[in-house]
Amino acid sequence: MTLLENIREALRSIGGNLLRTVLTGLIVSIGLIALVGILTAIDAMRHSLNDTFASLGANAFEIKAKGYGNRFRRGGVQDKQYPALSFLQASLYKKELTRREPSAVVGVSAQVSGATEIKAGSLKTNPNMQVVAGDENYLRIQNYALAQGRTFAPAELQTGAKVALIGQEIKDKLFPGQPALGQYLYALGQRFQVVGQLEKSGSTMGGSGADRLLLVPLEAGNQLPRTGALTYDVKSALPAASGLSFLESQATGVMRAVRGDRLGQEDSFEIQSPESLSGTLDSLTGKVQFGGALVATLALLGASIALMNIMLVSVTERTREIGIRKALGATARQIRLQFLIEAIVICVLGGSLGILLGIAAGNGVASLAGSTSFLVPWLWVGVGLTICVAVGLVAGSYPAGKAAALDPIESLRYE
């Protein structure tokens, strides 16, 4: 029998025991749903996060206080925490670094409030708007663009004027069907005049980009009411990524001097770049992938045991058929190949369904986390199909060998 004839015979046998075959295939499907679904979700979220990291700019890095706000413990020992960057430290760093490297761009900002309700007349937004105070480089350093209006004037930055740039969602909520420029709004008990509107950015990984952003001058943000001291974010960039490593070394020296880190003492801050964030992400997702693969492996192990049991039952039920085939000239190799192909076909049919459902489930989970892209992980599709064939070979080997070893005379006398 040719390979095609064996496949047809396997499909005929499967059709004769359809319910049993479907139940066995579903077991294989569950294992593949777990494997492909988990890995697809991880790849989709990682793809979206990499896009977010790329928006930071390949030629930029951010400086944060080491361990600040980090409550996680590693090995039972809590990481040492250092004080957050102050406004004075951020200002001194910006002044000194741009003096040493005139081509560098340094942006200083602070999140004043992350859950704010903004009002204008009788209209108001949901209480989930961000109020951020930024300097003249904030838009450039964050890769935000103006759709209308202008950015802050130097005098407004120096005096802390009550002016603001707003995102698309704020504009749609407060000024529907009319221009927002020149209008007034209220946030955190203060009145601001809208001088610019940011381009729509959409959502990424649960965030809203610039759409829910109310940007005010840095000095104005320092004067707004708040429950605690502001935490300042410092981001540095170059026109080209080629000199970024040198700028990082320069930034390290400047920030150590600004923070007063003594000789021999570790840095009280850390530099985060897209490469370092991506490396951390790869490390975390690698562990999650290992866990997902382990769960899927256990499910597939159960599927292989169930399939082997089904194939043994099939061999017993078809003992007389095997005897007839041998009497007509079928060799032990042909019998073995027939049952192996039948096991592989069952696995491939069930696995194909599991792969399709896994891709859909993985992208669904990723979309709940904020991912906007639909990812088809061809690598994991190939791995899944390979696993199907491997499970079929492993689970079908013993039943196929048992069928091939049957004595034709005894088989003909069966039943």
Automatic annotation (TrEMBL):
Keywords: Cell membrane, Membrane, Transmembrane, Transmembrane helix
Domain ABC3 transporter permease C-terminal: start-end pairs: 294-407
Molecular function GO labels: transmembrane transporter activity
Localisation per UniProt entry: Cell membrane
Membrane topology: Multi-pass membrane protein
InterPro entries xrefs: ABC3_permease_C, MacB_PCD, Macrolide_Exporter_MacB
Family to which the UniProt record says this protein belongs: Belongs to the ABC-4 integral membrane protein family.
Protein name, entry field: FtsX-like permease family protein
Native organism: Hymenobacter polaris
